[in-house]
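Field reference: sequence -> structure
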Amino acid sequence: MRRHEIAGRIDHTLLKPEATPGDVAALVAEARRLGVKAVCVSPSQLPLTDTGDLVVATVCGFPSGAHKSEVKAAEAARAAADGAHEVDMVINLSQAVTGDYDAVEADMRTVRRALPTDVLLKVIIESAALTDEAIVAVCERAEAAGAQYVKTSTGFHPAGGASVHAVELMARTVGGRLGVKASGGIRTAEAATAMVRAGATRLGLSASAAILDELGG
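Structure field:
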């Protein structure tokens, strides 16, 4: 794939808890230089400045997802007020692994309702920690709840990050009606390209510069 085809899908990401305002400013400057789609930072780093035409994304209920729904909703609403165009929320994994999909959907709905209609909601399902059956069910519930994207991973879970299999399954389940974001452990151009070919419409990357350098052009 060509460089611009990957760059246009990248959420250039910095979610290390020790990241400083200076680190975030450098991330934004690098994102603009690379020509990527978006930057994704922790909510405490908002609002951002000098973003140009970059999309500003943040996270909610991160990284465990084990927060009360109303807490996630308040965090999401504050992020939108602070300038986030997109919010990536983590589902309640306990509910997902026990098959309580009604509760998973209710959690997503609570966050979706807290956001302005023009702010996109991406749902992080932590696919490496779920069975295929659970991945399908959670993606179906994300669509029912009004999310715009399903996303593989936080990148912080010990079970692992994105896989081609999970992206293929997620993409097949949402059938183009929702976007699919592959995130977690994607560090080479080969891996990024494989995720796009599997159906990823967005890529959450911290190694954006190295990956795009590999692609050249």
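Note: DSSP finds nine helices and eight strands in the chain.
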